[in-house]
Amino acid sequence: MVYDKHIFICTNQRAEGAFRKSCGEAHGMEVVDAFKKKLKALELPIKIRAQKTGCLDICDSGQTIVIYPEGVFYVGVELCDVDEIINEHIINDRIVERLILKVVR
Predict the structure, then answer these.
(1) pLDDT by residue (tens digit) across 25-80?
(2) 102: pLDDT confidence band, cut at 50, 70 and 90?
(3) Distance (Å, whole) CA 89 – CA 94
(4) Greatest Cα-to-Cα distance within the chain, rounded to the nearest angstrom
(5) DSSP string covering 19-67
(6) What is the pLDDT of residues 7-29, one digit of tens each?
(7) Residue 85: pLDDT band by 50, 70, 90 thresholds?
(8) How far apart are CA 5 and CA 47, in angstroms?
(9) In angstroms, rounded to a whole number, what is the distance separating the alpha carbons of residues 18 and 34?
(10) Residue 95: exposed, middle, or buried by beta-carbon count in 10 A (0-12, 13-18, 19+)?
(11) Are the C-beta atoms of residues 9 and 35 closer than 8 Å to each other?
């Protein structure tokens, strides 16, 4: 199936004592569950999927999600941010600037 929006939520788990932290340690599955529950309840008129994914390799920025087809990365995502991301990005096509990954080149 092709989706209008596809949300990938990192749930990577590193071995205990690993040098880098991981999203799964923070609350990866809780964020996945929150997105799925809220999206289902909204019954949006678009094809959308939220799912867990492995490492997105920017773990030092905190809990990470990426939304396609835009390719927008959000970092430091907390459970309390899920509603805002859905309302702003998914429903209204507006980037949540305070959570967007800042890339320094």
Answers:
(1) 668 899 999 999 999 999 999 999 999 998 888 877 888 999 999 999 999 999 99
(2) confident
(3) 5
(4) 44
(5) SS--HHHHTHHHHHHHHHHHHHHHT-SS-EEEEEES--S-GGGSS-EEE
(6) 999 998 766 776 667 666 668 89
(7) very high
(8) 7
(9) 27
(10) middle
(11) yes
Could you tell me if 86 and 42 are in contact, meaning their C-beta atoms sit under 8 angstroms apart? Answer: yes
Closest Cα partner for 75 from 55, 52, 95, 59?
59
CA distance 77 to 97: 12
Which residue segments constitute the domains of the chain, with CATH numbers given? 5-99 (3.40.30.10)
Q: Do residues 8 and 68 lie in contact, with contact meaning Cβ atoms separated by under 8 Å?
A: yes
- Please report, as a single letter, which amino acid is at residue 41: A
